[in-house]
Amino acid sequence: MTKTICFANNKGGSGKSTTCANLGYFLAKSGKRVLLIDGDMQLNLSLSFFEEEEVLSMAAEEENLFEALKGQRELTPCVVETRYAGLSLVKSTTLMSQIEYELFTKLQREFVLKRCLKSLKEAGEYDYILIDAPPTLGIWVINILCASDYCIIPVEASPWGLFGLANMFDFINGLSDMIDTKVMGVLITKVDERKGYYRQTKETIRSFENIRLFDTVIHVDSAIEWAQDKSLPVAEFKKSARSVEEFKNLAEEVRDYGSRKGKHGKSK
């Protein structure tokens, strides 16, 4: 059964696109079939795998995420293959900046993405569909949550990293009548253990009731930025980078979710 996971946080700079891209890469490397959906107008997820000229060229094509949502069409014609086996991407466009207006005009506007994904999910071609959400809490993010089985919330280990996290949970809980999305867990990113912000972030998240904290954390790693500059997953840029092992471990936690909760439950 295809599992759809979105990456959401209403605060920008939390590492959503980075996590989505590198998790997708390692899930594919482990033999899973993965489809990535770039739901942010900044197109950072697309730029993680394709050069800027390629991304802009794909964005100019008729078949892309925005046009499919606008016409309420299936997404299969929008899919392109990355250079990595088992890893595909739905072409997106900067026109996603207009998606809130487009969705507002639709009947049952909260479920447009879910309808567009229906035939693709039923075909069972992918083990995972990973959706990168923008840092907002509007109708488009509601669409993404309605179409997802699980949500991963990356949180930056910084003074402002926790800002709005409670709002994110309130937002998801407020949609409980229309979605079945489970929060798979909170992932702490941009960790620098020399600073107290990491410990503070970890302790604060632990204080929330029934919120799972991933065992894996993602440390600050310059290799990530250099890899992004070259439109590569970090493992393709520098195999020895610290974050490579971390994203690999995160992929293991995601694959094991539901079957080994005793090991990968709330951090001790």
Number of helices: 12
* SSE order: EHEHHHEEHHEHEHEHHHH
Strand residue content: 5-15%
Radius of gyration in whole Å, from Cα?
Answer: 17 Å
The CATH architecture can be given as 3-Layer(aba) Sandwich
- Helix percent reads 25-40%
Describe this structure in words.
It is a single chain. The chain has 268 residues and is an alpha/beta fold. It has a single domain, classed as Rossmann fold, CATH 3.40.50. It has twelve helices and seven strands. It has helices at 16-29, 44-47, 52-59, 65-71, 99-104, 112-123, 139-147, 165-174, 197-206, 222-229, 234-237, 242-256, and strands at residues 3-7, 34-38, 79-81, 87-90, 128-132, 150-156, 182-189. Strand 3 and strand 4 (87-90) form a beta hairpin. Helix 1 (16-29) crosses helix 12. The radius of gyration is 17 Å and the shape is globular. The two termini are 31 Å apart. 46% of the residues are buried. Residues 261-268 have low confidence and may be disordered.
